[in-house]
Inverse folding.
């Protein structure tokens, strides 16, 4: 399989090169030249396949010959070695819990897959590979955990001091070995700016092989299809396909779901559930795409003012708005509504949502009110304990912490404090 750049000014590359490059040289996003069709039997008899087999069948056409079968099967099974249950919340709403991985968020899946692919690819490279990421919270933890102890790769994570939750900070700063946490005296935007600047530094690029692990990387994006199929496998009413509501920020997750649907997985409709950052909801109403500065909300992993992956959704539909409208709805949910949803669902159903899942839940509930014959799935993208500072005051109770996280909270934080200047980051990288 070849991947082209959405800006069409860079050469086509295979899966290996697309993974190593991250972004195409012309600043476009890599997109598969053809969208594969799932084998008919995979969909019709999905209940008879193991999750490992489903995932392997989904990813194989994209990887092509870049990774031999035996290695790819191993990577796939290490990627999904935790539960992804579909839990009934009401008669019409089911929650796909994507938070049983090591850092309690769905990003574990993409990060685990990408780290193992890159680990395989670096074996043939002459220079050491350094993965650089700026994080506002969840990405950093998933990347740190996914790349921990992967041979031949150093990981440098920049995060804004005092602006990530304590659970998130521990996930970034307690691993050690090849994972280096830089605590930046500045904002998330400052972190991103520093990363962008060193990527274009000639001296650094001569000495190091720098790459990023952000959500536009094909090796993070494509494996996110896996759990849509796991959800479908657990969906009882195959003759009434689900509406799927996805809490969306940078739109990588929902874009993977739409891709799985276009490849043959039955879905009635997708709902892109956004917080106050309503660029896509506005686009779906007006056909005008206007990026804005992100505003801060309580579902902060979705505070994105210019969602990078949305271009890929347009690409899937050949930029035909009418076709996109046929399958995608989008809406914007306020923080007040998010809090009251967490409270209502907990009180009436005994089910605890995190703020991101709550945005998705309310969007789905509103949709089902107008379409009472349909049923749906909300993707619960993070464990509520990751956002206990929001959730606990709303429900008036403590959220219990999974034992793995409890252990991590006891570990000592190890970070390097740094001012928000690209030159200081460069210095750090040269000494690494
Ligand atoms: C990253 C993240 C999202 C947004 O996912 P995108 O793929 O960027 O749309 C939603 N919820 C949580 C908990 C996240 O960490």
């Amino acid at each position: 399989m070849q991947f082209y750049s959405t800006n069409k000014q860079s050469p086509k590359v295979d899966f290996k090169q697309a993974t190593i490059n991250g972004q195409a040289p012309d600043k476009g996003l890599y997109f598969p030249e053809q969208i594969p069709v799932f084998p008919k039997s995979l969909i019709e008899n999905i209940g008879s396949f193991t999750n490992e087999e489903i995932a392997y069948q989904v990813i194989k056409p994209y990887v092509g010959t870049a990774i031999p079968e035996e290695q790819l099967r191993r990577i796939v099974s290490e990627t999904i070695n935790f539960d992804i249950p579909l839990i009934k919340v009401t008669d019409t709403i089911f929650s796909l819990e994507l938070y049983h991985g090591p850092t309690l968020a769905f990003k574990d899946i993409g990060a685990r897959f990408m780290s193992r692919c890159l680990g395989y690819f670096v074996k043939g490279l002459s220079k050491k590979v350094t993965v650089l990421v700026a994080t506002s919270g969840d990405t950093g933890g998933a990347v740190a955990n996914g790349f921990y102890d992967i041979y031949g790769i150093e990981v440098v994570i920049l995060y804004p001091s005092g602006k990530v939750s304590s659970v998130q900070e521990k996930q970034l700063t307690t691993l050690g070995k090849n994972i280096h946490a830089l605590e930046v005296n500045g904002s998330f935007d400052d972190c991103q700016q520093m990363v962008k600047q060193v990527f274009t530094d000639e001296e650094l690029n001569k000495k190091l092989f720098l790459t990023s692990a952000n959500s536009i990387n094909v090796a993070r994006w494509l494996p996110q299809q896996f759990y849509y199929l796991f959800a479908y496998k657990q969906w009882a009413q195959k003759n009434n396909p689900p509406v799927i509501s996805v809490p969306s920020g940078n739109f990588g997750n929902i874009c993977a779901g739409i891709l799985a649907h276009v490849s043959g997985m039955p879905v009635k409709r997708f709902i892109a559930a956004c917080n106050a950052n309503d660029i896509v909801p506005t686009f779906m109403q007006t056909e005008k795409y206007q990026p804005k500065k992100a505003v801060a909300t309580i579902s902060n992993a979705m505070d994105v003012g210019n969602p990078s992956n949305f271009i890929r959704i347009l690409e899937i539909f050949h930029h035909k708005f009418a076709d996109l409208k046929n399958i995608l709805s989008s809406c914007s949910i306020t923080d007040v509504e998010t809090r009251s949803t967490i409270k209502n669902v907990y009180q009436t159903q005994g089910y605890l949502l995190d703020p991101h899942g709550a945005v998705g839940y309310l969007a789905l509930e509103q949709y089902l009110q107008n379409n009472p014959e349909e049923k749906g799935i909300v993707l619960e993208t993070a464990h509520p304990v990751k956002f206990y500072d929001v959730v606990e005051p709303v429900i008036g109770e403590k959220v219990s912490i999974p034992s793995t996280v409890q252990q991590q909270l006891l570990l000592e934080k190890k970070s390097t404090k740094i001012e928000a200047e690209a030159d200081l980051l460069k210095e750090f990288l040269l000494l690494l």
In short: The domain at 74-106+221-400 is CATH 3.40.50.1100 (Rossmann fold). The CA atoms of residues 123 and 152 lie 7 Å apart.
